[in-house]
Design goal:
The strands form two sheets. Strands 1-4 form a two-stranded antiparallel sheet. A two-stranded antiparallel ribbon has the order 2-3. The protein is 79% helix and 3% strand. With 319 residues, it is mainly alpha-helical. The longest helix is centred in the middle third of the chain and has 33 residues, at 173-205. The protein has one domain (2-318): A middle domain of Talin 1.
Amino acid sequence: MIWTLVLLGIGFLLLIKGADYLIEGAVAIAKRFGLSELLIGLTIVAFGTSAPELAVSFQAALKGSGIALGNVLGSNIANIALILGAAALISPLKVSNSTMYYEIPFIIIISAASGAMFFGRNFTLGRSDGIVLLAFFVIFMMYIFSMARQDRAISQAVQIQEKKDTISFGRDIKWAWIATIGGLVAVIIGGDLVVDAGSHIARSFGVSDMLIGVTIVAIGTSLPELVTSITAGRKGRNDLAVGNVIGSNIFNTLFILGASALASPLKADRPFMMDIAFNVGLSIALPLLIMKRRVLSKFSGLLLVALYTVYLLLNTIAG
């Protein structure tokens, strides 16, 4: 068991640091080829911070593990309740009108729709469902690119970190390529270790893979988003702090869930009505919390963190 925990820790470390270098290397390459900061943030950064979820869920799906489904649902719940809640506790987050009226409603729709897909197929997400989710992801990315072309001024607000916090590759582009490829390899290996170790822990304690997926694995793979949003909130970059979570949830639901289902049909290995209810409920609660002043206050952040604590307790009790 000790060795399994060590492997789990190594897997998380590879996931987090691998995603970090993947993001920084890809951003350096994108800048070298003259891509806008907005496009970098909405595409490369969105992929980078969700790379751990992608690696874990895709490999778990191939192995028939319930971690694939649990990781996506658990990460989405952690993103809104834990990450946004923690970021708001440190510094209240102002939410833009675009996020309020477009991105958040889209989150509500796809969360409810993906949940309905499971119920319509006896708690299984088939390959045809995966194709539908991926098709909607393509449509969403087309919308993002269209918005990017119309409003290039926003690009100045989309940055990962201040220069002093950024991994520097100098002017030699080869180091950016090395970081990007090395980071991707680390994410893939780390994802494999997390899936294997998580499954072993689940079997040792007699609980389902999905329970491990929605708790330990989900929190671990959401750490890149947690660090990014808290750092952005402290520096007053509210759009990045909120957009990181919203974009990650869209990526998780449409691309990761879709790609995983396309690779191998996903079937829940435990009742997960509560997880879907929390996922949809938090998506609906978010605009209600910020509706009045377009600000996610410290009180709202405390409420979200409290809801996440309740979610973890209920999952632990349900086993």
